[in-house]
Amino acid sequence: MHSTVDGFSYGLVTPLVAFLMACLGGALGLRCTARAIRVARSWRPGWLALGAATIGSGIWTMHFVAMTGFTVEGTPIHYDRLITFASLAVAVVMVGIGIFIVGYKGASGTALFTGGTITGLGIASMHYLGMAGMNLDGYLEYDVPTVAASVAIAMAAASAALWAAGQVRGFLWGLGASVVMGLAVTGMHYTGMAALEVHVHGTADPVAGEPAATLLGPMMVGPLAFLVLAGVVVLFDPLMVAGGSAPPPAERKPGVPAHSPAHHTPARSRLRARGPVEHRSRTPQRR
């Protein structure tokens, strides 16, 4: 039996909050990615890993905030704990692969296409794996062309966001990139939900898993706390907020003192700067 699906049980509250969570995760993660491009290679893996975990947490939190407003007429909705956790891990790992490619190869050409594609596939994989963890008295059916459109939206918008983050042109570029990433996640989510049809069996059998309020509420505490900590890191790194360029480290050579280039003035220049020198004869003068 085909059942009525409602993805907006709380009106526009859940879509707006979900979009803001996606933008927050995107803003922090893309700023970490932009920061990684400008630091020494020894620091780069740490910044890229932080960016991947932040974007993955934002994607996962966005999805399940939106799912709190999802109801199906005629059946309760429960969630499998293991699959729900696995969807978070998939998001972080696949987004991390895409970000590491862009972080080491640059946000242009083949690297950008590859990184954006993998990041978009990570967003889509997280969504559909999270949907697979949903248990109800029925089964889910998807419209294949609409699913393909949702994946294409995720890949295109993720590539655009990584490109904007790689430009490193200040705070406004980072803000724009985060909005694009938020649009990628929420656009992919609701396009994927538009492809969904639910067929309810209509039996009285209990549904396996845990209710959304019991499972998702406590589970979202961890990713939300991580986003707050990542925000603290950004706030205490002025270079990330301002989008400026870090000065390159001075090259140290053996036997050469480390002084500023402004202090290295050639000997002739110093002599010329002093002006003419008065020469005095050492021969005693006759009186």
Automatic annotation (TrEMBL):
Domain of life (superkingdom): Bacteria
Q: Which PROSITE patterns match?
A: MHYT
Question: InterPro entries recorded for this chain?
Answer: MHYT_dom (IPR005330)
**Residue ranges of the region described as Disordered:** 246-287
Q: Where is the composition biased (Basic residues)?
A: 261-273
Identify one Pfam family in the record: MHYT
Q: Any idea where the MHYT domain is?
A: 10-199
The alphabetized UniProt keywords are:
Membrane, Transmembrane, Transmembrane helix
Looking at the UniProt entry, the stretches that span the membrane are 12-34, 46-70, 82-104, 111-130, 142-164, 171-192, 212-236
What does the entry list under GO cellular component?
membrane
Name of the protein in question: Membrane protein
